[in-house]
Amino acid sequence: MSDNIEVKMTEMNYDKDRPAAENPVKIMDISLRDGHQSLFATRGRTEDMIPVAEKMDEVGFWAVETWGGATFDTMHRFLNEDPWERIRTLKRYFKKTPFSMLLRAQNLVGYRNYADDLAEAFVDRAAANGMDIFRTFDALNDYRNFETVVKAIKKAGMHFQGCICYTMTEPRLGGDVYNLEYYVNKAKALEEMGADTICIKDMAGLIAPYDAFNMVKAIKAEVKAPIHLHSHFTSGMSPMSHLKAIEAGVDIIDTCMSPYAYRTSHAALEPLVMSLIGTNRDTGFDIQALAEINEIFEKEIMPKYKHLLDDSKMSIIDINVLLHQTPGGMLSNLVNQLREMDALDKIDEVYKELPKVRKDLGQIPLVTPTSQIVGIQTVNNVLFDDENERYKMITGQVKDLCYGLYGKTAVPINAEVQKKALKGYARGEEPITCRPAEVLEPELAKAQEDVKGLAVDLDDEILYAIYPVTGKRFLKWKYGKEPVPAEVLPRTLEDVAKADDIIKKAKAGELVEKAGDLPEKSENARTFNVFVENECFEVGVDEVGGTPIIDYIQAAQAQMPATQPAGMIPAAPAAPGAPMAPAPPRPVAPAAPKAAPKPAAAPKPAAAAPAAADVDGTPLPSPMPGMIVKYEKNVGDAVEKGDTIVILEAMKMENALPAPVSGTVKSTNYNSGDSVAKGDTLCVIG
Ligand code: CO
What φ, ψ does residue 250 adopt, rounded to 5°? Predict the structure, then answer.
């Protein structure tokens, strides 16, 4: 027993009226944000939060996390929901528990640094809509990216929680970069910025129990602000780390309700409540009330989402996090990318290359968006580099990072890589050292001008400013200017029951194929993927006369690979199950985020390439499947070997493809927005 924990046996009971502990551990519930984000790709709908909201409000949580992270993106893109409306709606049910959101500092709820005017407006509107606590993080722990939003949070009179992203370079806390001193210094910096609370944000579940103990002790010795621990379960260590952090005096812990817990999500609340009953850190929560909430989740809510859960593995922990420190979401992205390129056999090389790339790029923490940036560049290096040349294909995001657009890295970026990345970079070849947003022009007024006549209020305009393509599409749905596609409509319990029935019949061999007998599939038909063990059935549900009926079921597709997360279809990068963050919207990009494709649809066929046979010269073949963002050179332009010819988006990263030889561009075979297959001739140089 630690000297911080006392047990008073006489007071041990389940009764919610048990005597209050001296120093109860405070709990933030994160089921309604990180829980469904981690387990089923942020697809939780507001209507499925309402049934538990009033009961959750009674529990006594320090706060509930309801917004931020990927919710803003997913809601308007895949769920046809106004993200602002979620705060207002839930606020009507949560009358006393404060709301917390995850704010990516200057990245807001997107994937690039936004200009200060947009950042200020966003925070102001989030507060006005009902957000109370702003949990703020920066992927590089560069707190210059906090400056603008923190001022806005304070101006709105709200709670600023400053995060330190937890990352390592060694198997345990230590080493030259991310050691105890680093974290204590970051905590002090946050307190100086006015942090009301400080969060250790362990997004990959890397913090080991004794490291958590030592870190909480060390930080508490230096700062007064309460300490909050956010540690994902991924590696399996977090329940132990929670307990050691509590022994070290941590103030607040993040947990999920048990149906939303474990795997890449968080440890469940209930075992923690039980573990602390009768101690001086007793949460005081009514375990019976928690059981009632779980019952609602299990019966009324989870069935609608079970098709999105990854049940491909028995183990609920991810051993790769312990072995390679690769966060779960990042790993599945890497696997998918390799599979798309027919190179899954290179996964071990990717594991070996990843720490090298991370080191070259300044030993940055791996969290959205840096995990994608490092991951994709690693795959590019493994696939395209040879003994003569490293970093043959550098993504646009790596160039931005090398320029300093994301902030300052923990250690300097490899000078050679940086120089190569910035050769011909549009903003300049000399990296910046100032606060990144200082080089960004104000952008809100232009966005407002762009959506004049469509956007009704500032909330609409901000949504558009952060997500120009999908935001505009959503506003058209919202105001009835475009029909809402069936894919973004909610799944009902009736849909689920019907799909389950089909599966039961299929398993029992009772499913009779009615070839030629099928009714015409209407345009309202909606498609669901139904996973039975390792097989996937595509089930179409068509609405006839009001009630949805299942009108066809396609025979099992090819066997799903064992590593395939449920709900994710190979070669459909924007499939609803894809956990990867969409690419930053860029002014040059055409309609990059495609409409959510039907889950099982075949990949969009590549645009027909004009016959290149009649053009003499050296072809530039596409090194991977992707989408043309734009051509940097046009027919007739003289190019040097190595000049960027075309920008290709693959796995949501932009790749600048260099000229294979010097000469003149003879043909450019595609247009912006065209999909291309691996090997397609993108241009010919003669
Ligand atoms: Co998290």
Answer: -60, 145
| C-alpha 32 to ligand 1 mean position (Å) | 12
Calculate mean pLDDT across residues 547-568: 32
* Alpha carbons 121 and 134: distance in angstroms, whole number: 14
CA of 491 to the centre of ligand 1 (A): 26
Q: Which amino acid appears at position 440 of this protein?
A: L
Asked if residues 671 and 593 have their Cβ atoms less than 8 Å apart, the reply is: no
* DSSP secondary structure, 367-417, as one string: -TTHHHHHHHHHHHHHHH-BTTBS--S-BHHHHHHHHTSS---SSPPPHHH
Q: Ligand 1 centre and the CA of 194: distance in Å?
A: 23
Residue 255 Cα, ligand 1 centroid: separation in angstroms?
A: 10
Domain positions in the chain are: 9-308, 326-433, 618-685
Distance 392 CA to ligand 1 centre (A): 33
Q: What does the block give as tokens for 534?
A: 């390792």
> Which residue, among 287, 229, 280, has the nearest Cα to 258 in the 3D structure?
287
Contact in structure between 437 and 145 (CB atoms under 8 Å): yes
pLDDT band at 115 (very low <50, low <70, confident <90, very high): very high
Quick one: average pLDDT of 602-624? Answer: 63
Interval 643-654 mean pLDDT: 78
Rounded-to-integer distance, Cα 165 and Cα 222, Å: 18
- What spacing in Å lies between the alpha carbon of 203 and ligand 1's midpoint? 5
Please state the three-class secondary structure of 160-198 as a single string. EEEEEECCCCCCCCCCCCCCHHHHHHHHHHHHHCCCCEE
CATH assignment of 9-308?
3.20.20.70
Residue identified by tokens 């247009």 is 671
pLDDT tens profile 205-258: 999 999 999 999 999 999 999 999 999 999 999 999 999 999 999 999 999 999
Given this chain, do its domains 326-433 and 618-685 carry the same CATH topology?
no
* Ligand 1 centroid from CA 265, angstroms: 7
> What local confidence, expressed as pLDDT, does residue 394 receive?
94
Q: In angstroms, what is the span from residue 77 Cα to ligand 1's centroid?
A: 21
Q: 184 C-alpha vs ligand 1 centroid, how far in Å?
A: 21
Ligand 1 geometric centre to CA of 30 (Å):
9
- In which band, very low, low, confident or very high, does the pLDDT at 140 lie, cut at 50, 70 and 90? very high
pLDDT at 520: 62
> Which homologous superfamily is 326-433 in?
Conserved carboxylase domain (1.10.472.90)
CB distance 308 to 43 below 8 Å: yes
Between the CA of 190 and the centroid of ligand 1 the distance, in Å, is 19
pLDDT of 597 above 60: no
How remote is the CA of residue 219 from the centroid of ligand 1, in Å? 21
Going from the Cα of 230 to the center of ligand 1, the distance in angstroms, rounded, reads 7
Question: What top-level class would CATH report for the domain 618-685?
Answer: mainly beta
Looking at residue 368, what is its pLDDT?
77
CA of 83 to the centre of ligand 1 (A): 19
Find the 543 Cα to ligand 1 centroid distance in Å: 38
Distance 242 CA to ligand 1 centre (A): 15
Ligand 1 mean position to 576 CA, how many Å?
20
What is the pLDDT confidence band of residue 129, given thresholds at 50, 70 and 90? very high
